[in-house]
Amino acid sequence: MAFKKSFFILLLFILALLTACSGASTSEQIYDHLEKAVELEDTFVKQQDPIVELEKKEQEIYSQIIDLGMNEFEQIKELSKQAIENIDERKEKIELEKESITASKEEFTKIESMIEDLEQEDAQKSAQEMYSVMTDRYKAYDKLYQAYSKTLKLEKDLYTMLQKEDLEQKTLTKHITKVNDSYQQVIAANKTFNERTTEYNALKEEFYSAAGIDAEFENNAPTGEKNSTE
To answer: Secretion signal: which residues (predicted)?
Structure first.
């Protein structure tokens, strides 16, 4: 009898716990997922300034190289090796970026099935627009990541070529053109990503307003824009 009573009490406790967990409204649950997605992009945000600094350093190295003549080949080789180390560091940081964005995406997509459960029509419409733009933002980042990764590979190939004493000017010029063209793709992809980020920030604020969520939006913005790689 004591066992049955204990079981009954435990059952009541579990039911009470489940009721408490399900007590949050749909808009509040969506809010929680959105803010968790923000937190998961923290690593992404932290990579921005270091990447820009590495890009500036690499440009300085490149400028030093083009100012040298072939009679200073050993110095060119040494600088080229430094540039490759720089590229490897940037590659590590964009991989951290991607992991962060991927984790954010996995969290964000959890709201998709909740949107239809929103009672307010304007909140539901706002959430649908917000979801669509954020999905485009993740796609834009994927294109940016691919373009940047391709550029890093081309840059690494360039500095490997510069360590060859018999390198022909025609071959070098052709490869530099490839690097520059690739960077243009990075700039275009970066612009699209930043535009989608700005759009999402605005739509998120609209959703919070429509859903009656009282939040300091400045402290809950999704993610800052990615620094330009020009």
So the answer is: 1-24
CATH number where 57 lies: 1.20.120.570
pLDDT in tens, 41-92: 999 999 999 999 999 999 999 999 999 987 899 999 999 999 999 999 999 9
- The model carries a pTM of 0.84
Q: How far apart are the C-alpha atoms of 190 and 199, rounded to whole Å?
A: 14
- Report whether 124 contacts 118 (CB < 8 A): yes
Residue type at position 90: R
Whether 192 contacts 185, CB under 8 Å: no
Compute the distance between CA of residue 9 and CA of residue 189 in angstroms, rounded to an integer.
Answer: 58
Does some domain include residue 13? no
Coil/strand/helix, residue 119: coil
User: How many structural domains does the chain have?
Assistant: 1
Residue 16 φ/ψ, nearest 5 degrees:
-65, -40
Domain membership flag for residue 5:
no
Q: Is residue 8 part of a domain?
A: no
Amino acid at 101: I
Quick check: is 84 in a domain? yes
Closest CA to 34 of 102, 99, 105, 98: 105
